[in-house]
Design goal:
Blueprint lengths: L1 H6 L35 E14 L2 E8 L2 E8 L4 H7 L7 E10 L14 E12 L17 H6 L1 H4 L3 H23 L3 E2 L17 E3 L7 E3 L5 H9 L4 E9 L11 E10 L3 H19 L12 E3 H8 L13 E2 L16 H8 L3 E7 L7 H13 L6 E5 L5 E2 L8 H11 L6 E7 L1 H18 L10 E5 L4 E4 L4 E4 L38 E6 L2 E8 L4 H10 L4 H14 L7 E7 H8 L30 H7 L15
Parallel strand pairs: 3-5, 6-9, 11-17
Antiparallel strand pairs: 1-2, 1-4, 2-3, 4-5, 7-8, 9-10, 10-22, 12-13, 13-16, 14-15, 14-16, 17-20, 18-19, 20-21, 21-22
The chain binds aspartic acid (ASP).
Length: 641
């Protein structure tokens, strides 16, 4: 890795000096980012796109651009009349090739912002290789606002612009670093197929009809989960893949129907071993990709699921700022535990076993009535019945509609418990534990953002583990895996993988299984889930037991997961792994909030590609070949992102 880090720094492209084959071709001797003052006096030939053209009559200036940089070209009518004639015809985005002499620029005309800014190419010849229509947006202005649909329709022009170039190069460098660390650590890179049978990760499958076996379909993998486990049983020990995955779900800013995962699996490991490798790899990759960005804490902090929910109200906490959730329960009850705050909502919530918790928004005591109404409305939309608050004004006065219900001691105790200062605003939610965590957790993130509490440069990686194995699905009246149907269980919780009735097909929300904790670990970064993994169950009987709790009959599970279950009977090593979302990871390293910004050709919110116009209606013959007939749809298409 050290070598890679030295070679690839910041947003630079890889050095083009240690190539096996010389860059020089009949079109160019150098790239547009290569020539320096030390080249002055030599001849050179460059090819690229016309970034800008300035016509000063007898002198025409062209800024010539390629992926590597921009070089100024001067065409002097007196020296090169034919080239000058050609140059007067070129327009932005024409592709031209220019030969000439490298000349130092006059001191006052040097451009210190460009690495090539000390020189210019004095043209002797200019050839137009390709004309260009006026593009639908300015390629040479990275800040020009352009509608995203237009950007996606003309993605090849959008990618010509500097921001997309930088992001795709950052992505390439990151993937290179990922591969280097894995190969240096004994991982074998193996491609798994994408025409497979469903390997569920909780989303809908994309399916591909089979022509050779009419009436049957392949599923595109939601992940290579089963295949990588089978590779462990096959003895490959350490596997990795930059894997394309497909999930047919409604799209959001951090979701796409197809996306890329760093998928890995290791044999003869426990949770600590996988986490140790992934953490070291993550640090190496971050440093190779964005060496200038500090990592908040190494080793990464590790929280249990219960602890992060309690303290941050989220299982992917943003640790770049505090504003932790504060439990007010203990200061709202009498010494024998009776709720007695004087404010009925708090008292009845606590009496019913609910929670009263708060966050402190620093310096926000002066909020206007309207801002408070907006926050309250937001809390309601997130599921709370309301939002109470105490504003600690400068001078010590405590304001807020609930203040009159609470006696002075209670108010003081609440403020002390929150460690709030004058000028702060205490926001309080009283509800069930889940609602309180969710609402305050989201308000925490939104206010942290609004108050600028999170340093955008900092990378705050954090592990979360000890998730519950299962969640109760009230609609289907069964348990389902919180993460992965193959997750292992903490050894001390193995006995809990049963129903209260003792019969696997009669689950209830009170089953001991609901208390079992999984050998599951997630990695989060700056408030986003980067990915997760687990130590897997590797014994058939235990997996069958776990799958039964998830509502699978023995026949059903054989049909769905038969390959893995059968393989477990031929010697399965203990194994575990993880998958990290590459798109999300690059987006975070590139300081983007939308993964489309780091994907070359992403889909819109409605899952379409406006450039290729996909998806599209199949040829009539294709229906016939596949034995399919379209019977219509009631779902309208929208393309509003
Ligand atoms: N297959 C899981 C996922 O895609 C990751 C894993 O458990 O390795 O989320």
């Amino acid at each position: 890795m050290a070598a890679a880090r030295g070679r690839l720094s910041g947003y630079d492209t890889p050095a083009m000096t240690d190539q096996v084959v010389s860059l020089a071709t009949p079109y160019r001797t150098h790239t547009c980012g290569q020539l320096r003052a030390s080249d002055a006096g030599s001849t050179a030939k460059l090819s690229g796109w016309v970034h800008r053209r300035r016509d000063h009559g007898p002198l025409i200036f062209l800024d010539l651009r390629d992926r590597h940089g921009i070089t100024q070209v001067v065409i002097d009518k007196a020296d090169a009349p034919v080239a000058h004639d050609q140059a007067s015809r070129v327009r932005p985005e024409f592709v031209v090739s220019v030969s000439g002499t490298v000349s130092p620029r006059l001191p006052a005309t040097e451009n210190t912002k460009l690495p090539t800014g000390a020189i210019e190419l004095q043209a002797t010849d200019l050839e137009i290789l390709s004309d260009a229509k006026t593009p639908p947006f300015y390629i040479n202005d990275p800040d020009a606002p352009v509608d995203e649909l237009v950007r996606l329709k003309y993605r090849y022009l959008d990618i010509r612009r500097e921001p997309m170039q930088r992001r795709l190069m950052l992505r390439s460098r990151m993937v290179q670093a990922i591969r280097e660390v894995h190969h240096a650590n004994g991982f074998v890179e193996i491609e798994t197929p994408t025409l497979i049978k469903s390997t569920p990760e909780g989303a809908r499958d994309f399916i591909v009809p089979s022509r050779l076996q009419p009436g049957t379909v392949y599923a595109l993998p939601q992940s290579p989960q089963q295949l990588k486990q089978l590779l462990m049983i096959a003895g490959m020990d350490r596997y990795m893949q930059i894997a394309r995955c497909y999930r047919d779900e409604d799209l959001r800013g951090d979701r796409q129907p197809e996306f890329t995962q760093l998928d890995l699996e290791m044999s003869f490991v426990d949770e600590a071993a996988v986490m140790a490798f992934v953490e070291a790899m993550t640090i190496e990759v971050s440093k190779a990709t964005v060496p200038e960005r500090p990592i908040l804490q190494e080793p990464f902090p590790i929280f249990t699921y219960d602890e992060v929910l309690e303290r941050f109200g989220s299982d992917k906490p943003d640790l770049r700022f505090g504003m932790e959730l504060v439990d007010l329960g203990s200061v709202l009850v009498t010494s024998d535990g009776t709720p007695a705050s004087g404010f009925a909502v708090f008292d009845s919530t606590l009496a019913a076993g609910g929670r009263v918790k708060a966050i402190v928004a620093p310096g926000m005591a002066g909020v206007t009535r309207r801002e408070i109404d907006e926050l309250t409305e937001r809390a309601r939309r997130l599921g709370a019945k309301g939002l109470a608050y105490l504003a600690l004004e400068q001078g010590g006065e405590i304001k807020g509609p609930i203040a009159k219900f609470l006696d002075d001691d209670t108010k003081r105790a609440m403020i002390e418990r929150c460690a709030a200062d004058e000028g702060d605003l205490i926001l309080i939610v009283a509800d069930t534990a889940a609602v309180v965590a969710d609402v305050l957790g989201r308000l925490r993130v939104e206010l942290g953002d609004r108050l600028g509490l999170a340093d955008p440069e900092v990378l705050a990686y954090v592990w979360i583990h000890r998730f519950p194995m299962y969640q109760w699905d009230a609609e289907l009246e069964r348990w389902h895996a919180t993460h992965n149907p193959f997750s292992g269980v903490l050894p001390e919780d193995e006995a809990l993988l049963v129903t209260a009735s003792g019969e696997a097909d009669r689950p209830s929300p009170d089953d001991p299984a609901g208390r079992a904790r999984a050998l599951q670990y997630d990695l989060a970064l700056n408030g986003w889930e980067l990915g997760g993994g687990s130590i897997r169950i590797h014994r058939r009987a235990l997996l069958e037991q776990s799958l039964q709790l998830q509502g699978h009959s023995l026949d059903g599970m054989q049909e769905k997961f038969g390959a893995v279950l059968d393989a477990f009977e031929y010697g399965a090593p203990p194994h575990g792994g993880i998958a990290l979302g590459i798109d999300r990871w690059v987006a975070l390293l590139a300081q983007q909030t939308n993964i489309r910004e780091v994907m070359a050709f992403p889909k819109t919110q409605s899952g379409s590609d406006p450039m290729l116009e996909a998806p599209s209606v199949p040829e009539p013959g294709q229906y016939d070949e596949l034995g399919l007939r379209f019977v219509g749809s009631s779902k309208p298409e929208t393309d509003k992102d």
